[in-house]
Amino acid sequence: MVAKTRTASAKIDVDLNAVIVAVAETEVRPLILTRPVDGPATLPSGPLDPAAHRKMERNLRDWVTEQTGLGLGYVEQLYTFGDGGRDPRLDQDGHRQVSICYLALTRSDAEDGMRWRDWYDFLPWEDWRSGRPAVLDEILPFLSAWRDKAQDAEQLKTRAARIQLLFGVGQAGWDSERTLERYELLWEAGLVEEARWRADKPPRAPTIGEAMALDHRRVLATAISRLRGKLKYRPVVFELVPPTFTLGQLQRTIEALSGVRLHTQNFRRLVEKGGLVEAAGGPAASTRGRPAERFRFRTQVLLERPAPGVGLPEIRS
Questions:
Q1: For the whole model, what pTM was predicted?
Q2: Is the distance from CB of 22 to CB of 29 less than 8 angstroms?
Q3: What number does CATH give the domain 12-119?
Q4: Are 182 and 201 contacting, i.e. CB atoms less than 8 angstroms apart?
Q5: Do domains 12-119 and 232-316 have the same CATH topology?
Q6: Among positive and negative, which fits the CA dihedral 197, 198, 202, 204?
């Protein structure tokens, strides 16, 4: 018997997406584009050009510079997103949109509010710097209602455990690295607008945070999780601050990235004791009070320790 072969008729479109992150004062700002006619926000994307570039990262750097004028610092591949339903317009024609996504950091000026947006505009429940986010008072009752609509006892138990783990309910602490898992739970419960674009996800509650086109908010949540995790074992934060900086400036940047307020004296002891910085010489300009000393990243620490990162405190909700 000869096995029948199946010829794939679907077209696969492949592109490169980038979560390009910069810091402005107390905000972490990804570069955001807007679709024509005030459509949902999108992340930058460009063509995959295998004929012109042997390495995809070089491909990414070139089109980002061409489109935005930005020179990227640290770049790493984030994830490949290719699930069905990413773009309903393509799905109707049997197409599949596959995006190879990257996380990129830059020291470029992020003051232009037309292109750079605070990432907490899109995921407001992730910012604990001023205490427990008020938006959780909207989220948790709807998550409880979603939990109680479980089809059986096992699903009820699973949903309850996920809510407790991801949103710090009860004795559980808030794990800042679980950004992606929290967004995916909110999507599953129908609490983000993107979930409502599918016919099987009817509206259940007011949507939380600003929506993005396609699954770009999921891509952004993935980048936040990755970057927060790396803070603990890689000195990536120094890709976002100027070559010389004050300890206050470094602390505010880490707080903005992690969504956690740090104890100033403990933070300074940790940074200095860990050998992460060294004096750069000369005080910072100041209009009042004692001028702050300037520091720079001490590159020697990369040879001294395998994981020179910054520890973050656990949050109890």
A1: 0.88
A2: yes
A3: 3.90.79.10
A4: no
A5: no
A6: negative
**CATH number of the domain at 232-316, please?**
1.10.10.10
Backbone angles phi, psi at 37, to 5 degrees: 55, 45
Which residues is 13 bridged to in the sheet?
Answer: 97
Residues of the chain with pLDDT under 70: 1-10, 35-38, 85-94, 109-114, 198-206, 282-291, 314, 316-317
DSSP conformational letter for 262: P
What's the token pair of residue 129? 């710097």
C-alpha distances (whole Å) from 208 to each of 116, 122, 202, 299 are 20, 8, 15, 41
306 vs 187: CA distance, rounded Å: 37
Nearest C-alpha neighbor of 195 from the set 221, 214, 223, 220: 214
| Per-residue pLDDT, 7 | 44
Separation of alpha carbons 29 and 235, rounded Å: 19
Tell me what pLDDT residue 3 has.
46
Q: Quick one: pLDDT at residue 201?
A: 54
Which residue matches tokens 């509010």?
113
Rounded Cα distance between 281 and 46, Å, is 42
Q: Taking the domains of the chain in order of start, what are their residue ranges?
A: 12-119, 124-209, 232-316
Cα gap 24→45, rounded to integer Å: 23
What is the total residue count of the chain?
Answer: 317
Quickly tell me which residue has 């949050």 as its tokens. Answer: 315
How far apart, in whole angstroms, are the C-alpha atoms of residue 59 and residue 54?
Answer: 8
Q: How many CA atoms lie within 13 A of 44 on its CB side?
A: 25
Q: State the first-to-last Cα distance of the chain, in angstroms, to the nearest integer.
A: 63
